[in-house]
Amino acid sequence: DEIVVDNFAGGGGASTGIKMAIGRDVDIAINHDPAAIAMHKANHPYTEHYNESVWDIDPVTATGGRPVGLCWFSPDCKHFSKAKGGKPVDKNIRGLAWVALKWAATVRPRVIMLENVEEFKTWGPLLGDRPDPNQKGRTFNCFVNALRRHGYQVDWRELRACDYGAPTIRKRFFLIARCDGRLIVWPTDTRGSLSLKVQSGELKPWHTAAECIDWSIPCPSIFERKKPLAENTLRRIAKGLQKFVIDNPQPFIVQVNHGGDNFRVADFDKPFPTVTAKHGFGLVTPYVTQLCQNGFAGDKRHGPFEHNLQHIPCNP
Questions:
Q1: How far is it, in rounded angstroms, from Cα 114 to Cα 155?
Q2: pLDDT in tens, 178-216
Q3: Which tens digits make up the pLDDT trace of 171-183?
């Protein structure tokens, strides 16, 4: 008879994972964003949806007196993430996790789970609009102690998705609190890199980015742009070709919105890095073509990668 509640429900990814674990949809999903709720309804039509702020929901009214087995929380993470850099942070957004205490105090879920970026452990007071470096983790400790005062056993870990079968190296912080007297049990790794455990068969190898790519789709050329590339850009491309194509015959994946000479590169035979709304990825296909003194020769010669043969202009 226990129900499951997904706060900060988003498009329904966490709810889908919960459904895979327990065999049915979550009972209640809450999000202030109409677009997120619309997507969640499409993915989970049997769930009761609340298009409201998590702070405006009365847990007692929403649950209707039914016991809560699991309450899931994925509060906004961007005001903790190191990806935000040195930009100002919002105290209200950083404090969204406190809503878990509201549920603990009113309907006492048997299990509370919270997911966020690994920097969530550094949650502390602000100094102006920046985190106070001398008080890192102070608010986080207060949050954990508050759960314990409500009778919850609390534990947390950082887990990587690739270790459990997903083709991404995404690492996230997970906190579990339970008040039913049972032990908190964490999942066991099922996959790993090329370690002794993988070689012995104890673990399966990671799923890779290559498994997710449709290699039959040709790659568009960066040189087929309407606006010509700047000379400095061409120099960086030439430097990258030398390093990642001529000296390395394997294709690779590059994060496309990072500039400069030290742009980030990801191997296609490993799991993807974290994919966010801001970070796109492109596949680079190495090839070789014949070059004469004054430019390209009339015929194209296939190199080590015979698909997607294109001209690469290069100024020596």
A1: 11
A2: 999 999 999 999 999 877 888 888 999 999 888 888 878
A3: 999 999 999 999 9
